[in-house]
Amino acid sequence: MSNIPRRAAFIAIEGLDRSGKTTQVATLQTRLQAEGIPVKLLKFPVDRTTAIGQMIDSYLRSQSELDDRAIHLLFSANRWELAASIEQLLAAGTTVVCDRYAFSGVAFSTAKGLSLDWCRSPDVSLPAPDLTLFLDITPEQARSRGGYGEERYEKEEMQRKVRDVFHQISSEFTAATWVTIDAGREREDVAEDVWNFVRQLTGGLSSPLERLWEGKK
């Protein structure tokens, strides 16, 4: 019998704005709790009331202007603030589910014209999700949903570029660690797909937590 301690799974849910991420994350959290599985939900940027969070919030609401590189580094710093906490939660047996993670930071900044390699570099060695679920939706479908356009990046042309970068990023990962889900369907159908992939990890993992983009040139 193996003596390797098991840990919980780290799951990231990504997608374009208005792709249904928040709804699906909340649904997943409820499902995990119903199964008796400890779960911690994180949403990046985390806590917009902190010093970094306030700067990010002001920028996203178009109330302030920052250099593209500066805002990218702020988003990365926000993730690093919680990196140790994520590892501790996983080691303690608590599944961590993130609404957006480093992939969003890279996708949005690259879509603005920054180098993909440069955008990845601040997040190298962050805890890597065991599973990333990308909720794929066309910018046209996203635009038809309520609240579209309230934040800085919710413009159809920008979302199209972001989607292209997400697809580029996905090619760097295996089919076991990155799954693209059609989010243009009924939310119940999307939720069922999400659960079918997540439940495979609910028994815990004996493998060590990977580090994001280590060794990537």
TrEMBL record:
UniProt keyword Transferase, yes or no: yes
Q: Which PANTHER family does this chain map to?
A: THYMIDYLATE KINASE
- Top-rank taxon of the source lineage equals Eukaryota
Signal sequence range: none
- The record places domain Thymidylate kinase-like at 13-193
What GO biological process terms does the UniProt entry carry, in alphabetical order? dTDP biosynthetic process; dTTP biosynthetic process; dUDP biosynthetic process
Entries under PROSITE patterns matching the protein = THYMIDYLATE_KINASE
User: Would you tell me the protein name for this molecule?
Assistant: Thymidylate kinase
Question: A single GO molecular function, which one?
Answer: dTMP kinase activity
CDD domains in alphabetical order: TMPK
Q: Which family does it belong to?
A: Belongs to the thymidylate kinase family.
